[in-house]
Specification:
Blueprint (H helix, E strand, L loop, with lengths): L1 H13 L1 H39 L4 E3 L8 E2 L1 H9 L4 E16 L2 E10 L1 H4 L9 E4 L9 E5 H7 L6 E6 L4 E10 L9 E5 H8 L4 E2 L1 E6 L5 H12 L4 E3 H4 L4 H36 L1 H9 L4 H36 L2 E3 L3 E3 L5 H27 L3 H6 L2
Parallel strand pairs: 4-9, 6-8
Antiparallel strand pairs: 1-11, 1-12, 2-10, 3-4, 3-7, 3-11, 5-8, 6-9, 7-8, 13-14
Helix pairs in contact: 1-11, 2-9, 2-11, 2-12, 9-12, 11-12
């Protein structure tokens, strides 16, 4: 084995310029896998974090299937107050409506909440792009999403008319423009819970109650406990709320896998073609090695070991490039018009996965040229046929 390793190393050193191209191809393929998968992880983690920050508690309580709203909100809030492990809660009302400014109108999604309670559960009200946030006593003020503001060409301080789904209409002042990086950026209006109650005639009702626990790991246990205490069946953990994101995540993963496959294919072709050409140029040497007693399997192993040697060098360089590139992009996110920015995230498993996949690809790419070398006829090889 030591002789095989020695010959493989010497052969690689003699063909330094040629094999540099193989190393570059392997390094680029490895770095590509790390950075692409880092982006997928970054987008996935951002989606989950933004959902938790703006749209979900550790536990979310919904009306029963046959009901549109949670009835008896006051009593249910009292029960949550005394339930050990519940840190905070925030009731919300969601409804449809229309927002008008000058001669332009748009359908909107109305989200009503109590600012003092909401701030204890999410950071939604801090996602202000311009203007200021909603205060506890702002009955005549609203926040609107930035895309809605762009469509209507309004800014904070302007007055708009909101028509509620029950037909009531009222003029509100825009206190701030909201940017969350989530779906609510499309057409959402946020207002005070009390004002929505009056306009929609929904006293002592809510569409959902977000609950924050002392420990998110207890969400599974508290799901049943809260359902039992409040007499409601539709109670969800935060993990269930982010399940809808996985369809988007799966799309990103498929795109990433396609890009990675293209990079690996390019690297594999480079390795296979260059090794094959190298073997054809060394037919006489292979014939002489066989003539002095080297077996077909040993010849095959020489070129497999040579490919592994090149793979190790290329993968180490690729790991370095991938790590450096991912950390740089993590510190310098790329601007994105909807999400605000996107950035990869580095985890150690990215290095392990990329290294293993690339090495397997290199070995498979080297298999055919190595088999050709191992099966060469001694006489034809010596004569260069």
């Amino acid at each position: 084995m030591s002789a095989l390793l020695f010959y493989a190393k010497k052969d690689a050193e003699k063909n330094r310029k040629t094999f540099i191209f193989i190393i570059i191809a392997i390094a680029v393929s490895t770095a590509n896998i790390i950075i692409i998968n880092g982006f997928i992880d970054g987008i996935t983690d951002d989606f989950i974090e933004r959902t938790m920050e703006t749209s979900s508690g550790h536990i979310n309580i919904y009306p029963n299937e046959q009901d549109k709203y949670i009835e008896g909100l006051g009593i249910k809030e009292q029960k949550l107050e005394i339930l050990e492990g519940v840190v905070a809660y925030s009731p919300r009302i969601t409804a449809g409506g229309a927002l008008s400014y000058k001669e332009i109108s748009k359908s909107v999604k109305i989200l009503a909440l109590d600012p003092s309670k909401e701030k204890r559960v999410t950071i939604l009200l801090s996602k202000i792009d311009s203007g200021e946030t909603l205060g506890a006593n702002d009955k005549n003020g609203v926040l609107i999403s930035y895309r809605l503001a762009e469509d209507l060409k309004v800014k904070f301080g302007d007055e708009v008319t909101i028509v509620f789904e029950k037909g009531n209409a009222k003029v509100f002042k825009i206190k701030g423009i909201l940017r969350t990086g989530m779906a609510m950026d499309a057409n959402t209006v946020i207002m005070n819970f009390v004002e929505a109650e009056e306009q929609l005639d929904l006293h002592n009702k809510a569409s959902v109650i977000l609950v924050k626990l002392s420990d998110e790991a207890l969400s599974g246990e508290y799901k049943s406990k809260i359902s039992r205490e409040l007499g409601l069946q539709k109670v969800k953990e935060w993990r269930q709320e982010v399940e809808s994101l996985w369809s988007s995540v799966e799309t990103f993963k498929k795109i990433g896998a396609t890009i990675n496959a293209i990079g690996l294919f390019t690297g594999a072709v480079s390795v296979g073609v260059i090794l094959y050409i190298n073997i054809l140029h060394k037919r006489r040497q292979i014939g002489i090695l066989k003539a002095i007693g080297m077996k077909d399997l040993q010849i095959l192993l020489i070129y497999i070991l040579e490919a592994i040697f090149l793979g190790v060098v290329g993968i180490l360089i690729g790991d370095t490039l991938g790590y450096t590139g991912t950390k740089y992009l993590e510190a310098h996110p790329l601007p994105e018009p909807v999400l605000g920015y996107i950035a990869p995230r580095f985890y150690m498993y990215l290095l392990y996965d990329a290294s293993l996949i690339t090495m397997l690809t290199v070995i498979l790419a080297a298999a055919y040229p190595a088999l050709v070398a191992g099966r060469m006829n001694i006489i034809k090889a010596i004569w260069g046929d």
